[in-house]
Amino acid sequence: MPRRIQVLPEKLANQIAAGEVVERPASVVKELLENALDAGASRVDVTVRNGGKTEIRVADDGHGMGREDALLAMDRHATSKIRSEQDLAAIRTLGFRGEALPSIASVSRMVLETAEREGHGTRVVVTGGQMAAVEDCARRVGTTVSVRSLFFNVPARAKFLRSTAAENRAIGEVVTTAALAMPGIGFSFDSGPKDLLTLPIATGIGERIAALWGNEAAAELLPIAHRLSAGALSGMIQRPNAARSGGRRTYLFVNGRPFGDRNLVRAADRAYKTTISPGVHPHLFLFLEVPDGEVDVNVHPAKAEVRFRDRIGIERLIEEGVRAALAGLESTPSIGLRQPAAYPIV
Ligand SMILES: Nc1ncnc2c1ncn2[C@@H]1O[C@H](COP(=O)(O)OP(=O)(O)O)[C@@H](O)[C@H]1O
Ligand SMILES: [Mg+2]
């Protein structure tokens, strides 16, 4: 009998991985932002053309790469972030799969420019997963990745791209989430002619929220801080009297990583129950810190979800934490309706 099974060529394997990781321009921005943050950047600039469908460019001032690393970075499962099974249980970087760059490069025309020494840079050009050029370039320490013609070789996927405005909105949401996770880093997002977000370095979450949505929105929030054996919770939650129906903002982070989890949002809502009418949904900005090994971040290809070992403990931490913050509000009558925040918004 002839052999039926064969190992897929690298380029095809990358395109299949891209199917999971790269859904739309916003997923490319998410992966490139994560790489910039993992590289220790203090500022990250995102520029797109045509909602990212024509071009996405992410520039950082992180530690950059030498030539060998820049080439290796384009290989599947090549990462500087973990080395062993043990590392997988204690991930503190946003990336660890070693899949983003080769996946994105397999479905676009990518140019990566990077330097770890001032002026001594490398430019790597990859088109549809094929290495097209490697050359010297003069640039500052840091990395710029440009991704043009996303899905040019995957017409089935290209068809699902939405309008420029819709793609820009999704990218704005990705930048916003990263900016909330890292107030100490400066971000910008522009669509070529238009500045969509300008976020200077902030000293904390309150200041970052004010830069995103204005001082008034920030003044509607209360600080929250709670600790249980499952972990520690901090952040900001909206005052019950300021909450409205619709347009809800819920952002969850664990050990600095954004994730989605409806049950945890519900846990927070339970704590609000007696203070707000049904159908009204307060904004939540919740930051969890849990010990290594308590959270598994390797459950979703795009790293959008996580799994907690002690999920009941985490739900309790959130419910109790929100309740305690709201109780503090009741016992301080001076913080009445529609008054400015009792803490400084710098
Ligand atoms: N902006 C960047 N600055 C410095 N190094 C980078 C940057 N982007 C990628 N790299 C390097 O390339 C490697 C591969 O990146 P990626 O494919 O996203 O995988 P991962 O982030 O999971 O390691 C990273 O581990 C990192 O060493
Ligand atoms: Mg990465």
From TrEMBL:
PROSITE patterns: DNA_MISMATCH_REPAIR_1 (PS00058). GO terms for cellular component: mismatch repair complex. Residues 209-327 form the DNA mismatch repair protein S5 domain. InterPro entries: DNA_mismatch_repair_CS, DNA_mismatch_S5_2-like, HATPase_C_sf, MutL/Mlh/PMS, MutL/Mlh/Pms-like, Ribosomal_Su5_D2-typ_SF, Ribsml_uS5_D2-typ_fold_subgr. One of its GO terms (biological process) is mismatch repair. Keywords: DNA damage, DNA repair. One of its GO terms (molecular function) is ATP-dependent DNA damage sensor activity. The keyword DNA repair applies. SMART domains: DNA_mis_repair. Gene3D superfamilies: 3.30.230.10, Histidine kinase-like ATPase, C-terminal domain. It comes from the Bacteria. Belongs to the DNA mismatch repair MutL/HexB family. PANTHER family: DNA MISMATCH REPAIR PROTEIN MLH, PMS, MUTL, DNA MISMATCH REPAIR PROTEIN MLH1. This is DNA mismatch repair protein MutL. It comes from uncultured Gemmatimonadota bacterium.
